[in-house]
Structure formats: C-alpha cells, structure tokens
Write a structure and sequence with these properties.
1 helix; about 60 residues; mainly alpha; membrane; Preprotein translocase subunit TatA
Length: about 60
C-alpha cells in the first residue's frame, strides 16, 4: 500500500531546487576557500622551513 501525500511531488521539487540553488554554490564556495587556504598553508610552511634553515646555518 502506497501512502498518498498531498503536495508530495511539489515538496520533492522544492527539495531538489534547494539542493541545486543552495547546495552547489555552497560547495563551490567551500572548495575555493579550501584551495586558497591550502595555498596559504604551503606559504606558511615554506616560511617556517626557511627560518629553520637560517637558524641551522647560523650555528
């Protein structure tokens, strides 16, 4: 027995629209942020390694 929900197809359409209109842009924003943060992380790591090399050269 299948239960008939009034407005069920409309709710599914609204859910799909919400996923496409909110979910995809949100994933893109998070992806760009993570990419830029990873790039900054490499720069910080390289700077720390350069400081460490300078310390070792001074010894």
């Amino acid at each position: 027995m299948i239960l008939q929900v009034p407005g069920g197809p409309e709710l599914i359409v609204l859910l799909l629209l919400a996923v496409f209109l909110l979910g995809i842009p949100l994933l893109l924003i998070i992806g760009v942020y993570e990419y830029l943060d990873r790039k900054r992380g490499y720069e910080r790591r390289i700077a720390a390694l350069e400081r460490r090399v300078d310390e070792l050269e001074d010894e």
